[in-house]
Amino acid sequence: MTKSLFLLPGDGIGPEAMAEVRKIIAHMNSAMDAGFVTDEGLVGGCAYDAHGAAISEADMAKAKAADAVLFGAVGGPKWDEVPYDVRPEAGLLRLRKDLELFANLRPAICYPALASASSLKPELVEGLDILIVRELTGGVYFGEPKTITDLGNGQKRAIDTQVYDTYEIERISAVAFELARTRSNRVCSMEKRNVMKSGVLWNQVVTETHKRTYSDVKLEHMLADAGGMQLVRAPKQFDVIVTDNLFGDMLSDVAAMLTGSLGMLPSASLGAPDAMTGKRKALYEPVHGSAPDIAGQGVANPIAMIASFAMCLRYSFNMVAEADRLEKAIANVLEAGIRTGDIMAEGCRQVGTAEMGDAILRE
Ligand code: NAI
Ligand code: MG
């Protein structure tokens, strides 16, 4: 069975990191008969330069048709002045919206080899393996009304609106419970039911979804502010955290810093399962941006992009053993002291993007 991948390397270090994933795909095809079929498009600033849009309609159609999209990074100073609706980030937002990618998965894994380099206490983060499941298409980032009005007396009023419907909370909590079953079987749901109506509904719907379908999973509730504190104080208490768009944005960035460098962090965004095939639309991307300060130098850390491909193997193709192997290869290479500049430590050997990719491939 062929597996179609649509590659959108984007701008800056995006294409440099994607080149290392392409090597792994080619190897899996030739040595393991993996059957990946790849196609490639433009997104972000490079798409704007070519088409005047952050992604072309033809590439959108290809992204929709593919089994999975691999996305690099977009943006850079060159496009800082382009009109708002065609700015590089608009390409990513369009993909998320049109593919209805409502579940954003952000793992925070601290590789043992990097625990001592963490700015936090090593014993706090060594062996850390948590997964934050953030609702991505609802909540206060999208709710209406969303306005700034002039009150006429020298004052203005800004309004953002938090909106959540039952089905949105049901489907994101189902994703969290299902993922927990493949891990340590624990979910912690975070909201602010003490001050927000959406928090009250969130708590109710997660509780009902749990009772109805997932009562084998251990469920805990935490107020999101307390959750933030616990994430920093004792992060290893968590397995899967499920939360809304706004809290998830912040908590996943906090969790990111437990693991070392931005260059290490993968993510996945999943849609609803197709009624006919059961397949979910999915996009995989590193958390980092296009890093204009180091772009073009061949020094970017490709691990976030490679680990995003490991998530693709796991979640889009159910290639669990292969995903495990790829993640183990990353851990082994770090253990062997091979490092890009962003995670360099005393006594280690510093390498560039391609050398890091090659080392992981060899491993
Ligand atoms: P950034 O993530 O691109 O860079 C932040 C810092 O981390 C920089 O010093 C960079 O060199 C370093 N860094 C990031 N990834 C790295 C890697 N793989 N290896 C080594 N070092 C790495 O964030 P920044 O600087 O705020 O944004 C730069 C551009 O990227 C902007 O145009 C921004 O809009 C865009 N951006 C795009 C995102 C996306 O495509 N999803 C996400 C975040 C920012
Ligand atoms: Mg963020």
TrEMBL record:
NAD(+) binds at residues 76-89, 289-301. Mg(2+) binds at D225, D249, D253. Its cofactor is Mn(2+); Mg(2+). The keyword Oxidoreductase applies. It comes from the Bacteria. It catalyses: (2R,3S)-3-isopropylmalate + NAD(+) = 4-methyl-2-oxopentanoate + CO2 + NADH. PROSITE patterns: IDH_IMDH (PS00470). Substrate binds at R96, R106, R134, D225. The record marks Y141, K192 as: Important for catalysis. GO terms for cellular component: cytosol. Signal peptide: none annotated. Pathway: Amino-acid biosynthesis; L-leucine biosynthesis; L-leucine from 3-methyl-2-oxobutanoate: step 3/4. One of its GO terms (biological process) is L-leucine biosynthetic process. Binds 1 Mg(2+) or Mn(2+) ion per subunit. Residues 4-360 form the Isopropylmalate dehydrogenase-like domain. Pfam families: Iso_dh. Belongs to the isocitrate and isopropylmalate dehydrogenases family. LeuB type 1 subfamily. This is 3-isopropylmalate dehydrogenase. The lineage of its organism: Bacteria, Pseudomonadati, Pseudomonadota, Alphaproteobacteria, Hyphomicrobiales.
